[in-house]
Structures are given as structure tokens and as C-alpha cells.
Amino acid sequence: MKKIFINVSLIVLTFLSLSSVASAADVNLTIRDGSTTIFSGVIPLQPAGTINLNGHPLDADSVLSIVNDADILSPDFSITNLQYSDSFGSFYLKCITGATGEKCDNWQYWVGHTAPRVGMDKIVLLGGENIYLYFNFGSQHKVLLSSNAINTSNSPPLEHKFFIRNLQSSRNFSAE
After folding, report:
1. Is residue 120 part of a domain?
2. CA–CA separation, 132 and 148 (whole Å)
3. Is the whole model's pTM more than 0.70, yes or no?
């Protein structure tokens, strides 16, 4: 009898410890405004298929669908302005209102360690991903380089803008 009780206790403890970890059918979503975390939680993926969002079809497992689901499930924030462009056939997340007030037009996102170059309605998730949605993530700083301090004899001249993204300090640096 004691052995059965111990085994049942271990199963319950294992289940409880795993319940706060995202399963393969869930994604982790973090929404930030600068250093303020507006939302952070595990969101379950919907069954594969298409949902209707504001009168337009949307893949149920897209990043935008996950953000929309978090909006429905959480009182921490709300999508206050979501627009659809017929000419692009894509959604645009214009505004979110959260603990720092309404923030518009500067939302960017990452899936894991990648910043996709398409709208968040175009990226379909498989489960287990970490999604980071952020507003005005740091400031952009212009870095001026002195031609006296750079050895250009072995490398081409700087002709293109480049960005060094430092996620820990939340700043973007650019140089021309």
C-alpha cells in the first residue's frame, strides 16, 4: 500500500512540475515595451486550419493567431488596432494597449533567434517555439567611425548600413 502511494505521489508531482512548461503543442509568448514585460505565458496552438479574424482568413497556427489568442485569454493587454491590407493580402498589428498604455506602429517580433522578414500572419508555428513581440526595442544610435582609426587596406570600404543587435542591452547600433 505504501509503495502504491509513493508511485501515485511521484506521478502527480511529475505532472504538476511539467504543467508550467510548454509542450510541443504550445508556444511561449513574451510581449515587451522596452524593459516592461506586458505579457509572458504559454499559449496552446489551435488545431491546424484556418480561422476568421476581422473578416479575413488567418492560419490558426500563425504568430498573429497566437498573439490574438493571448489577447483573448489574458487581461494584461489588448490588440486595439489590427488592420488588413487587401493590396498586400496581409495583416498589420498597429496598436496594443497594456501596462504602458497604447503603443502603435513600432511592433517587431522574433521567433526564437530569428527576426522574420514577413508579417506575423505569414509565419506558421509547429509548437515549442519562443515568440518575442516587442515595441520600440531600444534606441537606434548612429556610430561614426574615423577613417584614421580603420585599416581599409584589406577590406572594402563601408558602403552599406549595418546593424549590430545587442538583445541584452536592448539597443540597436547603426553605422554608415
Report:
1. yes
2. 40
3. no
| Number of C-beta neighbours around residue 128 at 10 A | 14
CB atoms within 10 A of CB 17: 9
* CA–CA dist 82, 120 (Å, integer): 12
Number of structural domains the chain divides into: 2
Q: Which of 72, 107, 109 is nearest to 93 (CA)?
A: 107
Please say if the pLDDT value at position 153 is more than 70: no
Mean pLDDT, rounded, for 27-47: 93
> By residue range, what is the domain housing residue 85?
22-137
Residues 171 and 98 in one domain: no
7 is a domain residue: no
Do residues 92 and 103 both lie within one domain? yes
pLDDT at 141: 43
How confident is the model over 46-84, as pLDDT tens digits? 988 999 999 999 999 999 999 999 999 999 999 999 999
Residue 17 included in any domain: no
